[in-house]
Amino acid sequence: VIGGLGAVYYVADKARHPGTQLPFDSTKKTIVVLGSGWGATSLLKGIDTTEYNVVVISPKNYFLFTPLLPSVAVGTLSPRSILQPTRYVTRHKTREVAVIEADAHAVDPVKKTVTFSDDSEIRGLSSSTTISYDYLVYAVGAEVQTFGIPGVQEHACFMKELEHAEKFQRRFMDCVETAGFPGQSPEEVERLLHMVVVGGGPTGIELSGELHDWLKDDLAHWYPELSDRIRISLVEALPSVLPMFSKQLIDYTVSTFKESKIDVLTQTMVKEVKPNSVILQMPDKSLKEVPCGLVVWAGGNKGRKITVDLKAKVPGQTNPRGITVDDHLRMVGTDGIFAIGDCTSTSYAPTAQVASQQGAYLARVFAQIAKKTSLEARISELETKTPAAANEEERKANAKELDAAKKSAELVAIRPFHYSHQGSLAYIGSEKAIADLPFMNGNIASGGVATFLFWRSAYLSNLFSLRNRTLVANDWWLTQLFGRDVSR
Ligand code: NAD
Q1: Which of 161, 245, 329, 444 would bridge 249 by S-S if both were Cys, CB 3.0 to 4.6 A apart?
Q2: Global pTM?
Q3: Which of 411, 435, 468 is the last residue of a domain?
Q4: What is the pLDDT of residue 431?
Q5: Number of domains in the chain
């Protein structure tokens, strides 16, 4: 036990000293990584920095474990538990990785530069800098898609960043507390306690499920006079929720939501979000104004402005869904740019799983490029050295090494990226989860302790570090013991 604790202490604490890492080396190639999400973090985890300088530029100096964001929104997890500082990810690297907290706002694919600025809240001024790259890993993700629907940006909550989950919790509790204010009219109470979730994709479904759990497990005890009056409506424009899952799993989700008293309105489109209501276009195309206290917008994602601008600079990048990459994840039409994650358009759904496999793949690609480059340098050195060898013995030794180096160089074949789908999993509340797995004949739709534990263990094992696993497991245990946080 003492040995184990000692090892944990060493790994967690002792080995994080950038001062002991190799410094920037101007003779090495520089990889600039834009972003600190799934793709970038997976790359940083796997990359060997011995042969490269690596610079990370991201507006957030951390990685956010997005699948657990709805758990933060309902107070099951504390926000800090699902964050991983990017410097923590790179602390073991041979060469120090420069992590710059900044907004990249332009890429010049011809000059091979990135321009970024630090919009520091503290200094209150913005300074802009441009740096060069040899390789650019473009992993900026996506932003919330509002389709220009009036009022969404102003009045709805999103569920993509940490601040969205925190804002949601405060707004939700504000609705509950205001509904409990003495003398509140019944109509106003009804409005305040009506929560509308827009979007029947995995984000909307998981948030609705978690919200129901919060209601049932905690709010029912703390606000017994109000909890029965809280209503959750899930609005989806398409004929069905979760179109990426099988019919069996969709039916299971819908029937679970029915038992949980979550109203699922399909073929219903949100046309406008007002401060105190939403305008819905019903299946018969009529418009209906529905009063509500809170609207959560989980209507999907779109490319960021920097991505739109970059695509406009590269001939042939016309796919509106994102950056087109070749089978080695190189941005088509550019030299030295790799694009991964939600900013790209591929044949797979843009999920965390895809981005993280792409990041891990690129880490291997860079190792192979480094190996090939060093073998090629040695080959050219030996090719000049061999004819000028001092004696026959040295010439033979050189020729032998040259032959071996050429064979090794031929063996360094950089294979195309291949996505291996490990399955999709979604928590739907009431300790039930649905899983679409490529093994065990496909679909698992089940509830109960086993599924719940499976969901939790799958998410725990996907967390990138022991540190986060410890924090999340601890929060789960504390929530079990003391309930969720209902403070605002
Ligand atoms: P999504 O694009 O999957 O779903 C958004 C939904 O909102 C769509 O079904 C769309 O029809 C609906 N919508 C859009 N505008 C609307 C309107 N005006 N009125 C009513 N409905 C409207 O978005 P998401 O759920 O945020 O997921 C984004 C990506 O992340 C997906 O690739 C998803 O697979 C992935 N993801 C996966 C998980 C998981 O596997 N557990 C969890 C979260 C996200």
Answers
A1: 245
A2: 0.92
A3: 411
A4: 86
A5: 2
- The Cα 44–Cα 251 span in angstroms is 40
Q: What is the mean pLDDT of residues 135-162?
A: 97
pLDDT at 123: 58
Q: How many CB atoms lie within 10 A of CB 475?
A: 20
Cα(298) to ligand 1 centroid in Å equals 6
Pocket lining: 141 vs ligand 1, CB cutoff 6 Å: no
How far is residue 34's CA from residue 103's CA, in Å, rounded to a whole number?
A: 9
Centre of ligand 1 to C-alpha 299, Å, is 5
Ligand 1 atom with least separation from CA of 241? 9
Question: Which domain covers residue 83, as residue numbers?
Answer: 2-143+302-371
* Beta-carbon contacts of residue 86 (< 8 Å; ≥ 6 apart): 36, 41, 44, 56, 58, 61, 62, 63, 99
Higher pLDDT, 139 or 244: 139
What phi and psi values does residue 39 have, to the nearest 5 degrees? -65, -50
Residue 151 beta carbon below 6 angstroms from any ligand 1 atom: no
pLDDT-derived band at 197 (thresholds 50, 70, 90) equals very high
Q: Cα(171) to centroid of ligand 1, in Å?
A: 22
**56, two tokens:** 């990370």
C-alpha span between 206 and 282 (Å, rounded): 23
Count the alpha carbons within 13 Å of 199 in the hemisphere toward its beta carbon.
22
Q: Which one of 363, 387, 411 terminates a domain? A: 411
- In a domain? residue 192: no
pLDDT digits (tens, 9 = 90+) for 373-431: 999 998 998 888 777 777 888 888 888 888 998 888 888 888 999 999 888 888 999 88
Per-residue pLDDT band at 8 (split at 50, 70, 90): low
Q: Does 196 reside within a domain?
A: no
Looking at the fold, whether 323 and 390 belong to one and the same domain comes out as no
* Ligand 1 binding pocket mutation candidate from 82, 253, 343, 351 (most atoms within 8 A of CB): 351
Are 400 and 307 part of one and the same domain? no
Atom of ligand 1 nearest to the CA of 271: 18
Residues 120 and 40 in one domain: yes
Tell how far the Cα of 224 is from the centroid of ligand 1, in angstroms. 33
Domain membership of residue 336 (yes or no) is yes
Residue 356 within any structural domain of the chain: yes
CA of 243 to the centre of ligand 1 (A): 9
Give yes or no for residue 180 CB within 6 A of ligand 1: no
Ligand 1 center to 461 CA (angstroms)? 24
